[in-house]
């Protein structure tokens, strides 16, 4: 038998095996048929959990209530609470209004989504609530002085996309590459105290949103830069506390 004949027989057998495999695996399986294969150790790390925004879009019915159980009731209550405050009208719009429009310094941080991703509106709302922020004046979030909201914001959080507000009427569709934390001085508390409140809030929200905290130059916020900001704000507070210079009297 020649080599060519053997080659043809081999090709024919391979074709028959392929056709049999297609027929076998192409048949519909009965319910419960098949063997469950355990996932590899690294599979859990590679699986991307859906964001709360994606869950809300898929799990809320036309009436805004959950269809499934993927989103926790606590998160839905936080989300609903912010929507309720946004629809309360003029009362909520005054929350976070500064007592004075005058300021002499602004300290800024950014919370940015990771490369190729976006921050989603409903996720931001829930993270802000969990971090102790309230929705109010100018359609942004604020940290207020406890029991003294009339003193104005310790700091505020805005969308970096113009006009900077979070439109609750369209919050489901909102996507943004980053949000901005800004501390406008003078604040209702000492500048250093305000910073020590704003930084952990930004870090907490970054943890909740899976984002990164950046400095005012949009570089990763490191310990050295944090130390410089603290020194700047200590100096600012000392300058504010120093008594004004008295004018020299006439001889």
From TrEMBL:
Protein topology in the membrane: Single-pass type I membrane protein
Swiss-Prot/TrEMBL keywords: Cell cycle, Cell division, Cell inner membrane, Cell membrane, Membrane, Transmembrane, Transmembrane helix
Pfam families: ZipA_C
Compositional bias segments (type: Basic and acidic residues): 37-51
Region spans: Disordered: 31-67
Location of the protein in the cell: Cell inner membrane
GO CC annotation: cell division site; plasma membrane
Record-stated family: Belongs to the ZipA family.
PANTHER family the record matches: CELL DIVISION PROTEIN ZIPA
Function recorded in the entry: Essential cell division protein that stabilizes the FtsZ protofilaments by cross-linking them and that serves as a cytoplasmic membrane anchor for the Z ring. Also required for the recruitment to the septal ring of downstream cell division proteins.
Subunit structure as annotated in this protein's UniProt entry: Interacts with FtsZ via their C-terminal domains.
Protein name: Cell division protein ZipA
Native species: Lysobacter spongiicola DSM 21749
UniProt gene name: zipA
């Amino acid at each position: 038998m020649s080599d060519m004949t053997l080659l043809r027989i081999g090709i024919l057998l391979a074709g028959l095996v392929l056709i049999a495999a297609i027929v076998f695996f192409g048949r519909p399986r009965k319910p419960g048929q098949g063997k469950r294969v355990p996932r590899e150790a690294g599979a859990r790390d590679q699986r991307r959990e859906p964001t709360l925004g994606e869950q809300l879009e898929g799990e809320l019915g036309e009436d805004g209530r959950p269809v499934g159980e993927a989103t926790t009731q606590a998160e839905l209550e936080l989300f609903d609470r912010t929507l309720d405050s946004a629809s309360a009208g003029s009362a909520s719009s005054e929350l976070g209004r500064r007592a004075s429009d005058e300021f002499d310094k602004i300290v800024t941080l950014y919370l940015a989504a990771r490369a190729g991703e976006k921050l989603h509106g409903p996720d931001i709302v829930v993270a802000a609530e969990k971090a102790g922020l309230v929705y109010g004046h100018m359609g942004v979030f604020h940290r207020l002085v406890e029991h003294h909201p009339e003193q104005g914001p310790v700091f505020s959080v805005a969308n970096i996309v113009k006009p900077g507000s979070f439109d609750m009427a369209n919050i489901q569709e909102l996507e943004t590459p980053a949000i901005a934390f800004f501390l406008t001085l003078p604040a209702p508390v000492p500048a250093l105290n305000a910073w020590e409140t704003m930084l952990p809030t930004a870090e907490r929200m970054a943890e909740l949103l899976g984002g990164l905290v950046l400095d005012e130059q949009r570089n990763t916020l490191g310990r050295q830069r944090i130390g410089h900001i603290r020194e700047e704000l200590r100096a600012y507070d000392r300058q504010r506390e120093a008594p004004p210079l008295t004018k020299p009297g006439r001889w």
